[in-house]
Specification:
heterodimer; A: 272 residues; mainly alpha; Photosynthetic Reaction Center, subunit M, domain 1; 62% helix; B: 340 residues; two-stranded antiparallel sheet; 12 helices
């Protein structure tokens, strides 16, 4: 326990307490908060890992970097595939989605306990959306689980490479370009923020002087200081922007656009 | 009983007084008047824009940057026969190509524009790095920002300068232009046997996605607890209040691990610097050291061999084994045959 932790650990404010009036799962296990959604998460995770272990054992390849649990073959469409021919993949995706969603709901409960905003579960929901779009929504739109993302270390790299070429040139996918822009922008803004704090903390000056120092540095350097709160607003929305672009990037490839090179061969009448 | 009170907000400070470093600078002065944009306050951002520091290095950097833009525009106009609407229409397709070999370009159109531009670019970013360092000294910052900026320069210099030097031709560098930049990235990957199997590329993407994830986590955590002042981080490092307590406990209860107001910024800083450092290693290794990342991955046992074609194709052998969807994968190929 952290020195101040006891003050904040209190029962109540959970989903089960709201519904049943009492929550038997409202406790901590070591550092971790449990709660009903913690139990769901850990159950789904154990089931998923069990399926992964069975699949690895069946493939008989001792090198975990090469093991790939592929999506079902095209012939199974949106139905159930035999266990070792993609049924394992379908179950892993199901349990992973359950685990992710209940993890987000567990975060909501912790936010309620600490009486703080719901920004983290909201952000995590956007991250889950990237997974759900890739593994569930896009295969549903294309009518085949075979369009899903293969699971495995180098297996998923091969999937990404092949999918890029399947749509001719993924670099010409505008959402891919905007997404990459978002990833690099987050990295750059992250470096700027990290440098500002690491560069100025504990300089034996008054904290207000240190803060003004940061503001005046950025005004001198680039003409604008976004401020202590503003930088976190910027980072938050940059991350959400990047995730939305990632969603659009993969969602449009296949259901709507078959060829990103051909995509640009349009003409605007008034532009001639 | 621990402190559970929220941090009171800190009033804004006045303008910094000039000091010796400012006076020693030839062009050292602040220009403009601060313009308030009240709208920005609605997004939690500072309303004050402006009063930028001029400084000798900043002026030089801006000069080189504008000169580079002018050369780019001129070269683009020349490619479009001086037709400005055509340049605007086909802006994405303008390509300023690098010359072959390491010498001077034979003409402006055959790489001269590219060389002039790269010199101006190098001068501009170098001057900006000096400006960054000079401001760090002026404000008594530890030079984290300077080193992060140098790491970013290192990556671009590896792509446009060091790797072409090692490979013996400026043509190894990307042409300047929107589409040519994308094409270079695509071709580079294909030419060197699929960059996805480059472990440094993997690491760079890990850091890149990790940077976005960390911004998501850190930004969301701070916004969720900003009502109790957790966003005043420099002050919180010195003296923690309830906002930071909640930020830390949230992650401790969620995933069993938490940073604190200081160490979270170590994570942020090194993840973002890790992107460019591992990218630079991945780029400089591609070509001079490893010719084919797929074959490299197969040889090192972490990539599956998808069919029999690759080794002979990479080694330039004219005999390519028959390929079919049912062709059995070649087993037992001796190691170290991977053309590098």
């Amino acid at each position: 326990m952290l020195s101040f932790e006891g003050v904040y650990r209190k029962r109540g404010g959970t989903f089960l307490a709201d519904v049943l009036g009492d929550d038997p799962l409202d406790f901590w296990a070591g550092r971790f908060y449990v709660g009903v959604f913690g139990v769901v998460t850990i159950s789904a995770t154990i089931l998923g890992i069990l399926i992964i272990a069975l699949s690895i054992a069946a493939q008989g390849d001792g090198d975990l970097a090469r093991v790939t649990i592929g999506a079902p073959l095209r012939q199974y469409g949106l139905g159930f595939a035999p266990f070792y021919q993609g049924g394992n993949w379908e179950l892993i995706i199901l349990f992973a989605t359950i685990a992710f969603v209940s993890w987000a709901l567990r975060e909501v409960e912790i936010c309620r306990k600490l009486d703080m905003g719901y920004h983290v579960p909201i952000m995590f929901s956007f991250a889950i959306s990237a997974f759900v779009v890739l593994e569930i929504i896009r295969p549903l739109l294309l009518g085949c689980w075979c369009e899903g993302f293969d699971l495995g270390f180098t297996g998923h790299l091969t999937w990404v490479s092949n999918t890029g070429f399947k749509y001719m040139n993924f670099y010409l996918n505008p959402f891919h370009a905007y997404g990459v822009l978002g990833f690099f922008l987050t990295a750059m803004v992250l470096a700027m923020h990290g440098s500002a704090i690491l560069g100025t903390y504990n300089t034996n000056a008054d904290p207000s002087v240190e803060t003004a120092n940061v503001d005046n540095f950025w005004r001198d350097y680039i003409g604008y200081s976004i401020g202590e709160l503003g930088i976190h607003v910027l980072g938050f929305w940059l991350a959400i922007y990047t995730l939305i672009m990632s969603d659009l990037c993969i969602l449009t490839s296949g259901p709507w656009v078959k060829d990103w090179v051909q995509f640009w061969h349009f003409s605007i009448p008034w532009f001639h | 009983m621990a402190t559970v009170i929220a941090r009171p907000s800190i009033p804004p400070m006045e303008f910094p007084a000039p000091n010796e470093l400012d006076r020693a600078d030839l062009l050292g002065m602040r220009i403009g008047v601060p313009i308030r944009v009240p709208l920005l306050a609605r997004f939690g951002m500072s309303t004050q824009t402006g009063v930028i520091w001029l400084g000798t290095w900043g002026v030089l950097s801006t000069f080189f940057f504008v000169a580079g833009l002018a050369v780019l525009t001129f070269a683009g106009l020349q490619q479009m026969q001086g037709n400005l609407p055509l340049l605007i229409k086909y802006f994405a397709n303008v390509q300023i190509q690098p010359p072959e070999g390491l010498g001077m370009a034979p003409s402006l159109q055959q790489g001269g524009f590219w060389q002039i531009n790269m010199i101006l670019w190098a001068a501009s970013v170098t001057c900006w790095a000096f400006r960054c360092y000079e401001r760090c000294v002026r404000f008594s910052w530890r030079p984290y920002l300077f080193f992060a900026y140098c790491a970013a320069i290192l990556l671009t210099a590896t792509i446009w300068l060091y790797r072409p030097l090692v490979m013996g031709s400026w043509a190894e560098a990307p042409a300047l232009g929107l589409n040519s930049d994308l094409d270079w990235a695509q071709n580079f990957s294909v030419l060197w046997g699929n960059l996805y199997y480059n472990p440094w590329h993997m690491l760079a993407i890990f850091f890149l996605f990790g940077s976005t994830m960390l911004w998501g986590m850190h930004g969301a955590t701070i916004l969720a607890t900003a009502a109790e002042g957790s966003h005043q981080e420099v002050a919180e490092i010195k003296d923690m209040h309830s906002g930071s307590h909640k930020s830390m406990l949230f992650w401790r209860w969620t995933m069993g691990f938490n940073a604190n107001p200081k160490t979270i910024h170590d994570w942020l800083y090194w993840f973002s610097v890790g992107v460019v450092l591992s990218s630079a290693i991945g780029i400089i290794a591609t070509g001079p050291i490893v010719k084919d990342w797929y074959v490299w991955g197969v040889d090192h046992g972490w990539v599956q061999q998808y069919g029999p074609i690759t080794r002979s194709a990479i080694n330039g052998s004219p005999q390519i084994a028959p390929v079919g969807i049912n062709a059995p994968a070649q087993q037992g190929v001796p190691k170290g045959q991977g053309g590098y």
